[in-house]
Amino acid sequence: MGVTYKTVKNQFPSMIAQMEAMDGRKVKVGALSGGHAWLAGIHEYGCTIPVTDKMRAYLHSQGLHLKQSTKVIKIPERSFLRSGFDENNRRILKQTERAIAQVLDGKLSADDMLEICGQQFATAIKKYMRNLSSPANHPFTKEQKGSSNPLVDTGGLLESITYKTE
Asked: N or C: which end of the chain has fewer CB within 10 A?
């Protein structure tokens, strides 16, 4: 028994070209530059700040009276990039797989597919940041900020979350 087939249109060359256009491409999401990148790193991994005499005096003048035995201030880890990714990656991956199919069909460019993926992840990370409440801010920090959201103060860090395609 033999099988005969006839294609109306050979899309394989186009599909191969689209796959080659995506090869090695990636999307970076986060606070990608400037002072907010530094702040994002502090919140993502936490940090320990040695208390100096100058810092102790400044905090005292602001109403935070540290014990003499306090040698460091610890900012706890508030992973929003890694945890925000983990919470959203399956949903966004499914959407990206559908977008890749559109790229292979020639209905969407590889650049547009990467832009969509970046926008989705940046938006998801921002939403995760707004909803994060643990670990809570120190009561003094809440009082200074006027808010209990640990990752949102002026909104600068939140708005610095963006993406770029490479």
From this structure: N
Q: What is the pTM of this model?
A: 0.76
Record the tokens describing residue 165, joined without a space: 């395609």
Do 27 and 117 meet the contact criterion of CB atoms below 8 Å apart?
yes
From CA 159, how far away is CA 85, in angstroms rounded?
17
Among candidates 69, 92, 76, which has minimal Cα distance to 141?
Answer: 76
What is the CB neighbour count within 10 angstroms for residue 27? 19
For the chain, the domains span: 12-46+78-137+148-165
Are residues 140 and 123 in contact, defined by beta-carbon separation less than 8 angstroms?
no
| Measured distance CA(8)–CA(6) in Å, rounded | 6
* DSSP per residue, 100-133: HHHHHTTSS-HHHHHHHHHHHHHHHHHHHHHH--
Which tens digit of pLDDT belongs to each residue from 119-155? 999 999 999 999 988 888 888 888 888 777 878 877 7
Residue whose C-alpha is closest to residue 49's, from 72, 25, 67, 29: 72
